[in-house]
Amino acid sequence: ELVSPDTHRQLELVWFELDPGHELSEGMMAHPGEEQAIVLAGTMHLLIGDETYILEAGDSITFDCSVPHRVENHGSARLVQLSAITPPRY
């Protein structure tokens, strides 16, 4: 869900919720820009290139979106994540 008021700015905020056992996209995705994400609830498995990062509620990360990446939820609770992404692409 797009949280920012419009996509005519240089930054967008996006709210993600992901049920256990699901991933945010099919396969890895890559796009121009930078993303900063914070986990509000649950556990996020973030695959960036060949690395996997496990983030819990309160953890945040910043990464280059041009590197192939994917978000997965291997936990037992719903993942809630807020991301700031530049440039907007929603």
Can you tell me about this structure?
By secondary structure, this protein is mostly beta strands. Helix content is 0%, strand content 49%. The strands form 2 sheets. Strands 1-7-2-5 form a 4-stranded antiparallel β-sheet, with no helix packed on it. A 3-stranded antiparallel β-sheet has the order 4-3-6, with no helix packed on it. The protein is globular and about 35 Å long. It starts with 11 loop residues before the first strand and ends with a strand.
Short account of what is shown:
This protein is an all-beta fold. It has strands at residues 12-18, 34-41, 43-48, 51-56, 60-64, 69-72, 79-86.
Radius of gyration: 12 Å
- Summing up helix and strand content along with how strands pair, one would put the structural category as mainly beta
Assign a percent range to the helix content. Answer: under 10%
Strand content: over 45%
- In the sheet with the most strands, the strands line up as 1-7-2-5
Spans of at least 5 consecutive residues whose pLDDT stays below 50 are none
Averaged pLDDT, please?
93
Overall outline: globular
Biggest pleated-sheet summary: 4 strands, antiparallel
Number of strands: 7
Number of separate helices: 0
Q: What's the helix and strand layout?
A:
Elements: E1 12-18, E2 34-41, E3 43-48, E4 51-56, E5 60-64, E6 69-72, E7 79-86
Antiparallel strand pairs: 1-7, 2-5, 2-7, 3-4, 3-6
